[in-house]
Backbone:
């Protein structure tokens, strides 16, 4: 169990997750990189800013 | 099964209430009244209910005792008949504004009426479960919420409860069903379609509820504006909050999770990607959800908090059933599990 | 509980199917696939489902065996993978057109493709319960219906079954969700809003289904036209039927009651008063109803029969669940009791 650095949501790393994998925070949708498994910790992955063009 | 009747069931809120009660595991609809449509089958007015019930509208004078009486009359009617209604049912849920405010002076100011039954005002509980759950549980008389007020109060409550807000400007966008089922020149389709029409730019009666419900020791400084847009259902409150001290987005998540994390009908919607990043009433039609999202402005003390609802559901009939579930001791989500449609 | 998985669950039909299965008393959703959205929570794509499930999309290659496999892929995909899908589940319900038609020649003509698995065509039952209920009950493989075809066939079936029709012109009005979730120049809002845009005026692939399902000894002479209008959901088939012999309105009621009187999802809507006189898809959004109405023209042999549905429900996902209920022996209306909203 760990926390999303952006919004603080608790995140359970599913079994079989590997370091370097990108997962998505279910609450704030930000992309996170798994930096360690024991203890589990996540960092903000580089973001691609979508342009809505509105 | 608990017997429930609806007074004023031919309107949009009354019709939505009837849809919910017909699908509710613990309520049995006894009577539904409408002076105009008395004797006619309900699906003449509510086409979605065709084949669902044999019920016909009855006149108010034929109303019989029941366990729960839902009042869905236009504003300014229930207040003159409350003694009669109270004689017919142990529980009353009033969807109108007639018993929402505590101070009779507010009725003089916002509804230009001298309240005829002021002694009833303290007997009614303001029916927003997320804020008055325990009180509602033990109440016999509960008043519904104003739709624009509901989404605004729910969006602002966590910040006001913690006394973080200096001043707020609430800019609400609304659909046409807020105006009810009576046609007017302004609601005539060629006039109403595609508008972005400021409706009550500088004074809207729902402000009274915000000031009442968000007063934690000091009268909140709130400004309120409503604009009609091209939709039938839906209300979106964009709350421009100027805080005493800036907060980070992470702190906001903590605050809103603390207050709403366990709420069955509030979802926090502040996403970084996808096209559904912030609350949008469009996907809430028919559901009892209030979606809340927020955005912190860099370098200023402004936080924009957004609250979206279906004005006929969490802003009216759905909220009334949620409150009634609490009053009767049913599961709070009973009869309210429709998640909404997408696309719609 | 019966386990069900959805292949292609990020589209509109797949998303609607997921909404229905999540709310279904007897189905347990096991996996939902999407190549584009693999790993992401379903509510990223289906915002109405936020808070309803923790499910995330998986890749097709990770699909595991289950009891019922719903295929919601674009046309022209399932037909190349049917052996693999059949190895994973006892029952298959395919929402695409890949196994709807019996004659491979129809696929060459309407879908410009040489069907890669023609030997599977006779194994699939055309999944319209009102017409093939007993067959579906004993089928393992059922194909979904085309949305425009569904409302047209249901409207015309009672007249064609009795060989009353000389010729019919079917003029269907449709909403934008028929085009699916992929954006195109034509679906770009400034281009799509407010249109009355003839879509396939002289040849539409759904005609193949009508010709197949309404052939009672002679090839039906039917003409088919589709026009896109300003709506998201909904399909209304206006069927201009020229009968061999004129019939009275009373006889029409008798014919349609005889065929549809006991049907849970068909309502006859031909009223003399009120604003909801004839079928209108607007009030059917989210419901599995097909509303049918008719009008007899004085002095000619024309009868106008109207069939309205929600293209994503009775025209796709709702109908698929109705068929699956029959296949699995569940009550036919299980998970399909939402009556639709009004106003909406």
Residues:
């Amino acid at each position: 169990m760990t926390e999303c650095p952006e919004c603080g949501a608790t995140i359970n790393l599913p079994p079989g997750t590997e370091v370097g994998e990108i997962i998505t925070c279910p609450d704030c949708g930000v992309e996170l990189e798994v930096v360690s498994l024991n203890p589990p910790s996540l960092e903000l992955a580089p973001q691609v800013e979508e342009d809505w063009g509105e | 099964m608990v017997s429930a009747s609806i007074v004023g069931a031919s309107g949009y809120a009354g019709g939505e209430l009837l849809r919910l009660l017909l699908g509710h595991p613990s309520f049995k609809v006894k009577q539904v009244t409408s002076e105009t449509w008395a004797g006619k089958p309900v699906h003449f007015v509510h086409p979605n209910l065709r084949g669902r019930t044999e019920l016909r509208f009855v006149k108010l004078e034929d109303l019989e005792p029941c366990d729960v009486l839902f009042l869905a009359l236009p504003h300014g009617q229930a207040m003159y008949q409350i003694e009669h209604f109270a004689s017919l049912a142990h529980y009353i849920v009033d969807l109108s504004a007639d018993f929402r405010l505590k101070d009779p002076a507010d009725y003089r100011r916002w509804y230009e009426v001298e309240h005829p039954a002021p002694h009833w005002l303290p007997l009614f509980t303001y029916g927003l479960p997320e804020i008055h759950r325990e009180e509602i549980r033990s109440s016999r008389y509960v008043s519904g919420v104003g739709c624009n007020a509901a989404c605004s109060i729910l969006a602002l409550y966590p910040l006001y409860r913690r006394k973080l807000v200096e001043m707020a400007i609430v800019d609400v966008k609304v659909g046409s069903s807020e105006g009810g089922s009576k046609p007017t020149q302004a609601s005539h389709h060629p006039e109403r379609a595609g508008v972005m029409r400021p409706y009550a730019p500088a004074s809207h009666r729902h402000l009274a509820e915000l000031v009442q419900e968000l007063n934690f020791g000091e009268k909140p400084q709130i400004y309120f504006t409503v604009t009609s847009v091209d939709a039938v259902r839906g209300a979106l409150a964009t709350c421009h909050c100027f805080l005493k001290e800036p907060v980070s987005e992470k702190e906001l998540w903590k605050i809103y999770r603390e207050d709403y994390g366990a709420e069955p009908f509030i979802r926090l919607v502040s996403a970084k990607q996808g096209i559904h990043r912030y609350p949008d009433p469009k996907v809430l039609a028919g559901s009892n959800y209030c979606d809340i999202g927020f955005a912190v402005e860099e370098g200023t003390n402004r936080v924009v908090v957004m609250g979206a609802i279906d004005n006929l559901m969490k802003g009216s009939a759905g909220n009334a059933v949620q409150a009634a579930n609490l009053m009767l001791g049913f599961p709070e989500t009973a009869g309210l599990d429709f998640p909404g449609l997408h696309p719609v």
In short: The radius of gyration of chain B is 20 Å.
